[in-house]
Amino acid sequence: MRAAGLGQVVAGRYRVTGEPVGSAVPAQDLRSGESVLLHALELPELLLADQLSAGQLLAGQLLADQPLEGPDPEYGGRVAARVAARTRETPSHPRLLQGIEVFADEELLWVAEEYPVGVPLAELAGAGPVPPYRAAEIAADLAGALRALHALGLAHGNISLDTVLVCEDGATMLGGLLLGAAEETLCAELGGPVPRRVYEARAVLLGARAERWAPDPGPQADCWALGVLLHRLLTGRAPYPEDDLPTLLSAVRDGAAEPADGCGPLRPLVERLLRPDPAARPTAAAVRRWLTELLASSPEPYGPELSGAAPREPEVLPVVRPRGRLVLRRRAGREVAHGRHAGTRPRVSPALLGPLLVGGVLLAMLAALAAVVALAG
Predict the structure, then answer these.
(1) How far apart are CA 176 and CA 164, in angstroms?
(2) Helix (H), strand (E) counts: the chain
(3) Residue 306 and residue 299: Cα distance in Å, rounded?
């Protein structure tokens, strides 16, 4: 996969501003001034999918008995339109990164997604297993985003370490929806009507990443992928072997997940999410409720202390959380702290403080006068 270089302007709109982030590059939208993340996928620009087998197409080899045709200038635009149609009903949600645009430029299909300041979850997970209560916070945010999608009958289909961003305020956001749709559309284009060719295309494009090979399609596949992601965060490895795709698929098909021994208080949830029967898995809404109840009694800041060790901050944090009031709400034109950050409410209305102060002064003067009279008498 090719990527744009620093300073390059893609499609006359996006200027690359930094080094690659995984398989993408950060850029600035010259129209809005906002930061975006650009993903580039190679288009099969020479021949349509029914003229090449998936394996030959991905290897760049032509069928010997078929003549070479020139590139179709409309092909990339048609693929981009199909991807856009699949994601047109995406809801606006505070934990869901919005796809901005999918477009073809020369031999590449580009996907642009909003990119707020934060740390990729892959970087956080790369420092070692994530403490269970921090993982619960992450999963609760992701479940909230999935709940919004599933309520509209939509599935995400691209949950992984590479599509999750932890923002400056500690919130976790789920991205990759538009990218996942683009990848699946290209696989369908490459494979055509032959399922085996679609499988071959997915094998090359997606690789042996457990989250992308759910045993069933639809919203419940997202919940299964969330279980895989949680297991990966908590133990440092996937619950299924990822050495090669056939071994991975065999383990997924047989429901042979590794024991969730290292998942701590999240073990019951992980085991339920990884059940082979989709009807036996909790929904995204149920996952959100379960995690909310768990976090309500969680120790501060992110998990239990190590046995026999003094309390300490985690060595790797995605961000430094702001001090003071975390959540504010407006009441009668002024900001009021919410929840456990509200502090102690005043017992006396501010409007009564003036009259009470005057009354107190008068009472003090009367008491002093009575004392003088008593001493003189």
Answers:
(1) 8
(2) 11, 11
(3) 12
Residue 1's alpha-carbon distances to 23, 25, 47, 276, in angstroms, are 8, 12, 19, 34
Greatest CA separation for the chain: 129
Q: How far is CA 48 from CA 45, 192, 224, 248, in A?
A: 8, 9, 34, 30
The model scores a pTM over 0.85: no
Each residue's pLDDT tens digit, 32-82: 999 999 999 998 754 343 344 444 444 444 333 344 455 677 889 999 999
CA proximity to 160, closest of 127, 122, 131: 122
Question: What Cα–Cα distance (Å) separates residue 296 from each residue in 74, 109, 132, 194?
Answer: 54, 44, 14, 50
H or E element in which residue 195 lies: helix 195-206
Q: Round to whole Å and give the CA distance between 41 and 109.
A: 5
Given the structure tokens 């993340």, which residue do they identify? Answer: 37
pLDDT digits (tens, 9 = 90+) for 137-160: 999 999 999 999 999 999 999 999
Structural domains of the chain, ranges and CATH numbers in brackets: 9-296 (1.10.510.10)
DSSP helix/strand/coil, 228: helix
How far apart CA 136 and CA 233 sit, in angstroms, is 10
How far apart CA 273 and CA 3 sit, in angstroms, is 36
Report which secondary-structure segment, H or E, holds 220. helix 219-235
Structural contact between residues 352 and 358, judged by C-beta atoms closer than 8 angstroms: no
Q: Kindly give the interhelix angle for 219-235 and 132-151, rounded to the nearest 10 degrees.
A: 170
